[in-house]
């Protein structure tokens, strides 16, 4: 079960997706389409990497929060949930990382 803050954010994002783009960042970003949402995840990921390389702990926390927020916006756009993501992690628990990689579908 998702953490309460994640549950609240999922509910807020679901509600804000259909708000006015003038008053809501979620609505504005969602209106720009899935490719733009996905691009934001890439941008926030790069900003997290840069903060990590600079050994900037508060920066990593802040950029990671942006990253998770934008991931939630993407999941909502695709009709997916954080609980599904947690279930995937849960299914991997206790397996070796090497074995897990070998069991993944080939890309
Ligand atoms: N957690 C967040 C959150 N984290 C980051 N952001 C926004 O994400 C953006 C990231 O900054 P960037 O500089 O990369 O992007 P930008 O220049 O603003 O926008 P782009 O044109 O580049 O896409 C900023 O505008 C932040 O305000 C967030 N916006 C909203 N939320 C949550 O979503 C809720 C609903 O927000 P609204 O949709 O605005 O009502 C809020 O109450 C918050 O709880």
TrEMBL record:
Alphabetical UniProt keywords: Amino-acid biosynthesis, ATP-binding, Cytoplasm, Histidine biosynthesis, Hydrolase, Nucleotide-binding
Cellular compartments annotated: Cytoplasm
Highest taxon listed in the record's lineage: Bacteria
Chemical reaction(s) catalysed: 1-(5-phospho-beta-D-ribosyl)-ATP + H2O = 1-(5-phospho-beta-D-ribosyl)-5'-AMP + diphosphate + H(+)
Pathway as given in its UniProt record: Amino-acid biosynthesis; L-histidine biosynthesis; L-histidine from 5-phospho-alpha-D-ribose 1-diphosphate: step 2/9
SUPFAM superfamilies: all-alpha NTP pyrophosphatases (SSF101386)
Pfam families for the chain: PRA-PH (PF01503)
NCBIfam families (UniProt xref): histidine_hisI, PRK00400.1-3, PRK00400.1-5
InterPro entries given in the database record: HisE, PRib-ATP_PPHydrolase-like
CDD domains, A to Z: NTP-PPase_HisIE_like (cd11534)
Principal cellular location given in the protein's record: cytoplasm
PANTHER family: HISTIDINE BIOSYNTHESIS BIFUNCTIONAL PROTEIN, HISTIDINE BIOSYNTHESIS BIFUNCTIONAL PROTEIN HISIE
Keyword ATP-binding attached: yes
Broad EC category: hydrolase
EC number: 3.6.1.31
Gene3D superfamilies linked to this entry: MazG-like
Protein name in the entry: Phosphoribosyl-ATP pyrophosphatase
Key word Nucleotide-binding present: yes
Family: Belongs to the PRA-PH family.
Residue stretches spanning the membrane: none
